[in-house]
Design goal:
Rossmann fold; 12 helices; globular; binds nicotinamide-adenine-dinucleotide; alpha/beta; seven-stranded mixed beta sheet; five-stranded parallel beta sheet; Dihydrodipicolinate Reductase, domain 2
Protein backbone atom coordinates (compact mmCIF):
# COMPACT_ATOMS: atom_id res chain seq x y z
CA UNK A 1 0.00 0.00 0.00
CA UNK A 2 1.10 3.61 -0.59
CA UNK A 3 2.76 5.42 2.28
CA UNK A 4 -0.40 7.55 2.46
CA UNK A 5 -3.84 5.96 2.18
CA UNK A 6 -7.47 6.94 2.72
CA UNK A 7 -9.58 5.38 5.48
CA UNK A 8 -13.37 5.14 5.54
CA UNK A 9 -15.03 4.19 8.84
CA UNK A 10 -18.38 2.33 8.93
CA UNK A 11 -20.45 2.41 12.14
CA UNK A 12 -20.32 5.60 14.22
CA UNK A 13 -21.44 4.25 17.62
CA UNK A 14 -19.75 3.63 20.95
CA UNK A 15 -16.34 2.40 19.75
CA UNK A 16 -15.88 4.54 16.62
CA UNK A 17 -14.24 7.47 18.46
CA UNK A 18 -11.44 5.22 19.76
CA UNK A 19 -10.66 4.22 16.15
CA UNK A 20 -10.79 7.79 14.82
CA UNK A 21 -8.45 8.92 17.59
CA UNK A 22 -6.06 6.20 16.38
CA UNK A 23 -6.32 7.13 12.69
CA UNK A 24 -5.83 10.81 13.48
CA UNK A 25 -2.39 9.86 14.87
CA UNK A 26 -1.45 7.28 12.24
CA UNK A 27 1.45 8.11 9.91
CA UNK A 28 -0.04 6.72 6.70
CA UNK A 29 -3.83 6.57 7.12
CA UNK A 30 -5.95 9.70 6.78
CA UNK A 31 -9.68 9.48 7.50
CA UNK A 32 -11.53 10.41 4.30
CA UNK A 33 -15.05 9.93 5.65
CA UNK A 34 -17.53 8.08 7.86
CA UNK A 35 -20.78 6.20 7.32
CA UNK A 36 -23.64 5.12 9.57
CA UNK A 37 -27.23 4.01 9.04
CA UNK A 38 -27.97 6.99 11.28
CA UNK A 39 -26.66 9.92 9.21
CA UNK A 40 -27.04 12.44 12.05
CA UNK A 41 -24.79 10.28 14.23
CA UNK A 42 -22.19 10.10 11.45
CA UNK A 43 -22.32 13.88 10.93
CA UNK A 44 -21.86 14.52 14.66
CA UNK A 45 -18.83 12.23 14.81
CA UNK A 46 -17.36 13.76 11.64
CA UNK A 47 -17.66 17.24 13.19
CA UNK A 48 -16.07 16.10 16.45
CA UNK A 49 -13.04 14.53 14.75
CA UNK A 50 -12.67 16.97 11.86
CA UNK A 51 -13.59 14.37 9.22
CA UNK A 52 -14.42 15.85 5.81
CA UNK A 53 -17.03 13.47 4.35
CA UNK A 54 -20.16 11.72 5.52
CA UNK A 55 -21.00 9.02 2.99
CA UNK A 56 -24.51 8.02 2.03
CA UNK A 57 -23.79 4.38 1.29
CA UNK A 58 -21.08 1.75 1.48
CA UNK A 59 -20.27 1.80 -2.23
CA UNK A 60 -19.57 5.53 -2.13
CA UNK A 61 -17.14 4.87 0.74
CA UNK A 62 -15.52 1.92 -1.07
CA UNK A 63 -15.00 4.03 -4.21
CA UNK A 64 -13.27 6.75 -2.20
CA UNK A 65 -11.11 4.79 0.29
CA UNK A 66 -8.22 2.31 0.41
CA UNK A 67 -8.97 1.01 3.94
CA UNK A 68 -12.41 0.22 5.40
CA UNK A 69 -12.58 0.30 9.20
CA UNK A 70 -15.64 -1.73 10.27
CA UNK A 71 -17.11 -0.65 13.64
CA UNK A 72 -20.68 -1.89 13.20
CA UNK A 73 -22.35 -4.66 15.26
CA UNK A 74 -21.04 -8.17 14.45
CA UNK A 75 -24.28 -9.24 12.72
CA UNK A 76 -23.35 -6.87 9.84
CA UNK A 77 -19.62 -7.70 9.65
CA UNK A 78 -19.67 -10.54 7.10
CA UNK A 79 -21.63 -8.52 4.51
CA UNK A 80 -19.49 -5.38 4.87
CA UNK A 81 -16.25 -7.40 4.93
CA UNK A 82 -17.33 -9.26 1.76
CA UNK A 83 -18.06 -5.97 -0.05
CA UNK A 84 -14.69 -4.55 1.05
CA UNK A 85 -12.80 -7.63 -0.19
CA UNK A 86 -14.71 -7.68 -3.49
CA UNK A 87 -13.80 -4.03 -4.01
CA UNK A 88 -10.14 -4.87 -3.26
CA UNK A 89 -10.11 -2.66 -0.16
CA UNK A 90 -8.05 -3.42 2.93
CA UNK A 91 -10.32 -4.11 5.96
CA UNK A 92 -9.78 -3.34 9.63
CA UNK A 93 -12.51 -4.78 11.84
CA UNK A 94 -13.87 -4.85 15.36
CA UNK A 95 -14.29 -8.16 17.16
CA UNK A 96 -16.18 -10.53 17.02
CA UNK A 97 -15.31 -10.81 13.32
CA UNK A 98 -18.42 -12.85 12.46
CA UNK A 99 -21.19 -14.64 14.32
CA UNK A 100 -21.41 -17.71 12.14
CA UNK A 101 -18.67 -20.21 11.35
CA UNK A 102 -20.00 -20.89 7.82
CA UNK A 103 -19.55 -17.18 7.03
CA UNK A 104 -16.02 -17.37 8.38
CA UNK A 105 -15.05 -20.37 6.20
CA UNK A 106 -16.07 -18.41 3.08
CA UNK A 107 -14.31 -15.25 4.23
CA UNK A 108 -11.04 -17.04 5.02
CA UNK A 109 -10.81 -18.24 1.41
CA UNK A 110 -11.64 -14.78 0.04
CA UNK A 111 -9.14 -12.98 2.29
CA UNK A 112 -6.39 -15.44 1.33
CA UNK A 113 -7.22 -15.22 -2.37
CA UNK A 114 -7.15 -11.41 -2.23
CA UNK A 115 -3.83 -11.52 -0.25
CA UNK A 116 -5.22 -9.06 2.30
CA UNK A 117 -4.41 -8.72 5.98
CA UNK A 118 -7.15 -8.82 8.61
CA UNK A 119 -6.34 -6.58 11.56
CA UNK A 120 -8.98 -7.28 14.23
CA UNK A 121 -9.32 -4.93 17.20
CA UNK A 122 -7.91 -7.37 19.75
CA UNK A 123 -6.88 -4.28 21.63
CA UNK A 124 -6.22 -5.64 25.14
CA UNK A 125 -2.93 -7.06 23.90
CA UNK A 126 -1.84 -3.43 23.74
CA UNK A 127 -2.65 -2.62 27.37
CA UNK A 128 0.14 -2.04 29.89
CA UNK A 129 -1.15 -4.88 32.07
CA UNK A 130 -1.19 -7.49 29.28
CA UNK A 131 2.23 -6.47 28.07
CA UNK A 132 3.71 -6.69 31.56
CA UNK A 133 2.05 -10.04 32.15
CA UNK A 134 3.39 -11.46 28.88
CA UNK A 135 6.87 -10.21 29.72
CA UNK A 136 6.76 -11.84 33.18
CA UNK A 137 5.51 -15.11 31.68
CA UNK A 138 8.22 -15.12 29.00
CA UNK A 139 10.86 -14.39 31.65
CA UNK A 140 9.63 -17.41 33.65
CA UNK A 141 8.86 -15.20 36.65
CA UNK A 142 5.98 -17.42 37.83
CA UNK A 143 7.52 -20.72 36.76
CA UNK A 144 5.33 -23.14 34.83
CA UNK A 145 1.88 -21.75 34.06
CA UNK A 146 -0.73 -23.92 35.78
CA UNK A 147 -3.96 -21.89 35.75
CA UNK A 148 -5.58 -18.90 34.05
CA UNK A 149 -8.76 -17.78 35.80
CA UNK A 150 -10.66 -15.01 34.08
CA UNK A 151 -13.63 -13.33 35.77
CA UNK A 152 -16.14 -11.21 33.90
CA UNK A 153 -18.58 -10.71 36.76
CA UNK A 154 -21.09 -8.01 35.99
CA UNK A 155 -24.77 -7.06 36.30
CA UNK A 156 -27.52 -4.96 34.80
CA UNK A 157 -26.43 -2.10 37.09
CA UNK A 158 -23.12 -1.59 35.32
CA UNK A 159 -22.98 -3.46 32.03
CA UNK A 160 -24.26 -1.17 29.27
CA UNK A 161 -25.24 -4.12 27.08
CA UNK A 162 -27.25 -5.81 29.85
CA UNK A 163 -28.88 -2.58 31.07
CA UNK A 164 -30.64 -1.99 27.78
CA UNK A 165 -33.88 -3.91 27.15
CA UNK A 166 -32.86 -4.28 23.53
CA UNK A 167 -29.28 -4.34 22.32
CA UNK A 168 -27.77 -6.15 19.34
CA UNK A 169 -25.55 -8.22 21.69
CA UNK A 170 -28.67 -9.99 23.02
CA UNK A 171 -29.15 -11.64 19.62
CA UNK A 172 -25.63 -13.12 19.46
CA UNK A 173 -25.12 -16.90 19.90
CA UNK A 174 -25.56 -17.50 23.65
CA UNK A 175 -26.32 -13.79 24.21
CA UNK A 176 -24.16 -10.94 25.49
CA UNK A 177 -21.13 -13.06 26.50
CA UNK A 178 -20.36 -13.69 22.82
CA UNK A 179 -19.49 -10.00 22.46
CA UNK A 180 -16.77 -10.19 25.08
CA UNK A 181 -15.56 -13.78 24.43
CA UNK A 182 -12.99 -12.70 21.79
CA UNK A 183 -11.14 -10.73 24.50
CA UNK A 184 -10.92 -13.82 26.71
CA UNK A 185 -9.91 -16.13 23.91
CA UNK A 186 -7.21 -14.00 22.30
CA UNK A 187 -5.93 -13.18 25.80
CA UNK A 188 -5.58 -16.87 26.58
CA UNK A 189 -4.06 -17.52 23.15
CA UNK A 190 -1.60 -14.68 23.72
CA UNK A 191 -0.46 -16.05 27.07
CA UNK A 192 -0.60 -19.78 26.49
CA UNK A 193 -1.32 -20.64 22.83
CA UNK A 194 -4.35 -22.46 21.45
CA UNK A 195 -6.16 -24.25 24.30
CA UNK A 196 -8.72 -26.99 23.77
CA UNK A 197 -12.30 -26.61 24.98
CA UNK A 198 -12.93 -29.02 27.89
CA UNK A 199 -16.40 -27.99 29.05
CA UNK A 200 -19.08 -25.32 29.21
CA UNK A 201 -21.52 -25.02 32.11
CA UNK A 202 -24.38 -22.63 31.42
CA UNK A 203 -27.00 -21.93 34.12
CA UNK A 204 -30.20 -20.00 33.77
CA UNK A 205 -31.56 -18.52 37.00
CA UNK A 206 -34.89 -16.79 37.59
CA UNK A 207 -33.04 -13.42 37.48
CA UNK A 208 -31.47 -13.97 34.05
CA UNK A 209 -31.64 -10.72 32.08
CA UNK A 210 -32.84 -10.73 28.49
CA UNK A 211 -29.32 -10.12 27.19
CA UNK A 212 -27.77 -13.05 29.07
CA UNK A 213 -30.29 -15.90 29.08
CA UNK A 214 -27.52 -18.04 30.60
CA UNK A 215 -26.64 -15.66 33.44
CA UNK A 216 -24.02 -17.88 35.11
CA UNK A 217 -21.50 -19.51 32.76
CA UNK A 218 -18.17 -21.26 33.31
CA UNK A 219 -15.97 -22.34 30.40
CA UNK A 220 -12.98 -24.63 30.93
CA UNK A 221 -10.08 -24.90 28.47
CA UNK A 222 -6.95 -27.02 28.70
CA UNK A 223 -3.54 -27.35 27.09
CA UNK A 224 -0.56 -29.45 28.18
CA UNK A 225 -1.37 -29.31 31.89
CA UNK A 226 -2.47 -25.67 31.95
CA UNK A 227 -6.15 -25.20 32.74
CA UNK A 228 -8.07 -21.97 32.02
CA UNK A 229 -11.49 -21.04 33.35
CA UNK A 230 -13.70 -18.22 32.09
CA UNK A 231 -16.39 -17.05 34.51
CA UNK A 232 -19.32 -14.96 33.29
CA UNK A 233 -21.96 -13.69 35.69
CA UNK A 234 -24.83 -11.28 35.09
CA UNK A 235 -25.65 -11.17 38.83
CA UNK A 236 -22.53 -9.64 40.33
CA UNK A 237 -22.62 -5.97 41.28
CA UNK A 238 -18.84 -5.90 41.88
CA UNK A 239 -18.32 -5.50 38.11
CA UNK A 240 -15.14 -7.50 38.45
CA UNK A 241 -12.94 -7.97 35.37
CA UNK A 242 -9.94 -9.82 36.68
CA UNK A 243 -7.42 -12.37 35.39
CA UNK A 244 -5.28 -14.50 37.71
CA UNK A 245 -2.40 -16.51 36.27
CA UNK A 246 -1.05 -19.01 38.77
CA UNK A 247 2.33 -20.56 38.11
CA UNK A 248 4.51 -23.05 39.94
CA UNK A 249 6.47 -20.22 41.65
CA UNK A 250 4.25 -17.14 41.60
CA UNK A 251 1.02 -15.43 40.66
CA UNK A 252 0.22 -12.62 38.23
CA UNK A 253 -3.02 -10.73 38.81
CA UNK A 254 -4.54 -8.37 36.25
CA UNK A 255 -7.25 -5.87 37.17
CA UNK A 256 -8.57 -5.20 33.68
CA UNK A 257 -10.71 -2.17 34.49
CA UNK A 258 -7.72 -0.40 36.07
CA UNK A 259 -5.24 -1.84 33.53
CA UNK A 260 -3.07 -2.94 36.45
CA UNK A 261 -0.93 -6.08 36.70
CA UNK A 262 1.07 -7.22 39.68
CA UNK A 263 3.30 -10.14 40.47
CA UNK A 264 3.47 -11.96 43.80
CA UNK A 265 5.97 -14.62 44.67
CA UNK A 266 5.72 -14.95 48.46
CA UNK A 267 7.40 -18.19 49.53
CA UNK A 268 5.72 -20.36 52.09
CA UNK A 269 7.45 -20.09 55.49
CA UNK A 270 6.49 -20.16 59.16
CA UNK A 271 7.47 -16.50 59.55
CA UNK A 272 5.46 -15.56 56.45
CA UNK A 273 2.41 -17.36 57.80
CA UNK A 274 2.82 -15.68 61.20
CA UNK A 275 3.11 -12.20 59.64
CA UNK A 276 0.26 -12.98 57.23
CA UNK A 277 1.15 -14.06 53.68
CA UNK A 278 -1.75 -12.10 52.20
CA UNK A 279 -0.55 -9.00 54.04
CA UNK A 280 3.01 -9.39 52.67
CA UNK A 281 1.66 -10.00 49.15
CA UNK A 282 -0.61 -6.93 49.43
CA UNK A 283 2.36 -4.79 50.52
CA UNK A 284 4.43 -5.92 47.54
CA UNK A 285 1.48 -5.33 45.21
CA UNK A 286 1.02 -1.78 46.56
CA UNK A 287 4.72 -1.00 45.96
CA UNK A 288 4.60 -2.25 42.35
CA UNK A 289 1.32 -0.40 41.70
CA UNK A 290 2.71 2.89 43.02
CA UNK A 291 5.46 2.65 40.37
CA UNK A 292 2.97 1.73 37.63
CA UNK A 293 0.24 4.33 38.22
CA UNK A 294 2.15 7.47 37.15
CA UNK A 295 3.07 5.72 33.88
CA UNK A 296 -0.56 4.70 33.35
CA UNK A 297 -1.76 8.26 34.03
CA UNK A 298 0.83 9.64 31.61
CA UNK A 299 -0.46 7.30 28.86
CA UNK A 300 -3.99 8.36 29.76
CA UNK A 301 -3.14 12.08 29.50
CA UNK A 302 -1.39 11.49 26.17
CA UNK A 303 -4.49 9.54 25.08
CA UNK A 304 -2.29 6.57 24.14
CA UNK A 305 -5.18 4.15 24.54
CA UNK A 306 -4.86 0.46 23.56
CA UNK A 307 -7.09 1.14 20.52
CA UNK A 308 -4.78 3.96 19.41
CA UNK A 309 -1.86 1.54 19.71
CA UNK A 310 -3.73 -1.17 17.81
CA UNK A 311 -4.42 1.26 14.93
CA UNK A 312 -0.76 2.37 15.02
CA UNK A 313 0.31 -1.29 14.66
CA UNK A 314 -2.11 -1.83 11.74
CA UNK A 315 -0.78 1.35 10.13
CA UNK A 316 2.84 0.17 10.48
CA UNK A 317 1.91 -3.15 8.98
CA UNK A 318 0.11 -1.51 6.00
CA UNK A 319 3.23 0.60 5.36
CA UNK A 320 5.39 -2.54 5.46
CA UNK A 321 7.34 -1.49 8.57
CA UNK A 322 5.79 -3.85 11.15
CA UNK A 323 4.08 -7.22 11.54
CA UNK A 324 0.26 -7.55 11.40
CA UNK A 325 -1.19 -6.70 14.84
CA UNK A 326 -3.32 -9.86 14.86
CA UNK A 327 -1.78 -13.03 13.41
CA UNK A 328 -4.25 -14.98 11.30
CA UNK A 329 -3.90 -18.08 13.47
CA UNK A 330 -5.09 -16.07 16.50
CA UNK A 331 -8.13 -14.67 14.66
CA UNK A 332 -9.03 -18.11 13.34
CA UNK A 333 -8.76 -19.67 16.81
CA UNK A 334 -10.86 -16.93 18.43
CA UNK A 335 -13.55 -17.07 15.75
CA UNK A 336 -13.90 -20.86 15.86
CA UNK A 337 -13.97 -21.08 19.67
CA UNK A 338 -16.41 -18.15 20.05
CA UNK A 339 -18.71 -20.09 17.75
CA UNK A 340 -18.28 -23.38 19.64
CA UNK A 341 -18.81 -21.80 23.06
CA UNK A 342 -21.77 -19.63 21.92
CA UNK A 343 -23.46 -22.64 20.33
CA UNK A 344 -22.84 -24.80 23.42
CA UNK A 345 -24.46 -22.15 25.67
CA UNK A 346 -27.43 -22.05 23.29
CA UNK A 347 -27.81 -25.81 23.24
CA UNK A 348 -27.68 -26.04 27.05
CA UNK A 349 -30.37 -23.33 27.25
CA UNK A 350 -32.52 -25.35 24.87
CA UNK A 351 -31.94 -28.40 27.08
CA UNK A 352 -33.07 -26.38 30.16
CA UNK A 353 -36.18 -25.16 28.33
CA UNK A 354 -37.05 -28.72 27.20
CA UNK A 355 -36.63 -30.17 30.70
CA UNK A 356 -38.84 -27.50 32.35
CA UNK A 357 -41.62 -27.62 29.73
N1 LIG B 1 -12.60 -3.77 21.23
C1 LIG B 1 -13.43 -3.36 22.18
O1 LIG B 1 -13.11 -3.22 23.34
C2 LIG B 1 -14.85 -3.04 21.82
C3 LIG B 1 -15.63 -2.25 22.66
C4 LIG B 1 -16.93 -1.95 22.27
C5 LIG B 1 -17.42 -2.47 21.08
N2 LIG B 1 -16.64 -3.28 20.31
C6 LIG B 1 -17.14 -3.86 19.06
O2 LIG B 1 -17.35 -2.80 18.13
C7 LIG B 1 -18.49 -3.09 17.32
C8 LIG B 1 -19.49 -1.96 17.48
O3 LIG B 1 -19.87 -1.86 18.83
P1 LIG B 1 -20.49 -0.50 19.43
O4 LIG B 1 -20.59 -0.73 20.89
O5 LIG B 1 -19.74 0.67 18.91
O6 LIG B 1 -21.95 -0.56 18.78
P2 LIG B 1 -23.01 0.63 18.70
O7 LIG B 1 -24.33 0.00 18.66
O8 LIG B 1 -22.74 1.67 19.72
O9 LIG B 1 -22.69 1.29 17.27
C9 LIG B 1 -22.84 0.59 16.07
C10 LIG B 1 -23.20 1.60 14.98
O10 LIG B 1 -23.18 0.91 13.72
C11 LIG B 1 -24.26 1.41 12.94
N3 LIG B 1 -24.59 0.39 11.93
C12 LIG B 1 -25.15 -0.83 12.11
N4 LIG B 1 -25.21 -1.49 10.95
C13 LIG B 1 -24.68 -0.69 10.00
C14 LIG B 1 -24.47 -0.81 8.61
N5 LIG B 1 -24.81 -1.93 7.96
N6 LIG B 1 -23.89 0.22 7.96
C15 LIG B 1 -23.55 1.37 8.61
N7 LIG B 1 -23.71 1.54 9.95
C16 LIG B 1 -24.27 0.53 10.62
C17 LIG B 1 -25.38 1.65 13.94
O11 LIG B 1 -26.31 2.59 13.43
C18 LIG B 1 -24.60 2.18 15.14
O12 LIG B 1 -24.51 3.59 15.14
C19 LIG B 1 -18.99 -4.46 17.79
O13 LIG B 1 -18.45 -5.47 16.99
C20 LIG B 1 -18.47 -4.56 19.20
O14 LIG B 1 -18.32 -5.89 19.64
C21 LIG B 1 -15.37 -3.56 20.66
Amino acid sequence: MDREYRVGLVGCGHIAGSHLRGWNRAHGGKVAGVLDLDRALASGLARKFGVENVYDDLHELLDDCDVVDICTPPQSHAAILTSAIEAGRQPVIEKPVVIDIAEWEVLVDRIRAAELELPVAHHMKFTRSFQKCKQWLDQGRIGRLLRIDWQFMTSRDTDRMLTADTHWSHELPGGRWFETLPHNLYGIHHFCGAMELASVTACRTAEAPRGAPADEVVVVLERAGTVATLHFSANCRLNQRKVTLTGSTGVITIDLLSDLAWLTRAKDSKLGRALGRSLIESGRAVISMSVDRPMYLLDHLRRRSPHVQFIAAADRSFRGVGPPPTPFEEIDYVTRYCHRIGKEIESQLLGCAASTS
